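User: I'm writing a tutorial on reading structure tokens. Could you give me a worked example: one chain, its sequence, then its tokens, then a sentence or two explaining what the tokens reveal?
Assistant: Sure. Here is the example chain.
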Amino acid sequence: MALRPQFHRPTLLAATLALCVAASSSPARADRCDDIAKELKNQIDGLKISVNTGNVIYLTHPAAKELSLGCRGRYYSNELYAKTDRKPKPQFFELVASAGAIIFTIPKPDVATGSSRCIKRMGILRGDKVSMRFRRLNMECTRTKTEASIAVTRGKDE
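And here are its predicted structure tokens:
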């Protein structure tokens, strides 16, 4: 007499049904990056979302030539990139401070102070590329003959 495994059909059916219900009832959740972009659009006047390409969302604003929000890179959790004329106007610093405060959830004056220090440090003594750290944010400012840019990131482990 051969031993056959006994499958309990009601138990197997219940387990399969529970698995299907658990998989289908998980709530649809929007990407955190899209949520941040929508929050930026709602809270900053004149800001528009233009293109979403995977991990980078391109934004437009009158105070910046280029503006983008990067999400989940290899070494950072979020990134704000902004480019303007070689001599940035106060509206540019206001835009970077407002966006940085929303993206990194730190006070707006801290982002304003850090970004203005980074851009103003570029010059004859320090060169056209300055990297600095301010309030747990990494800032890298670069400039060419016609443009200046800033990239603000926060590391993955912070």
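What the tokens reveal: The beta strands are 48-53, 56-61, 64-71, 76-85, 129-134, 137-143, 147-155. The first helix runs from residue 9 to 24.
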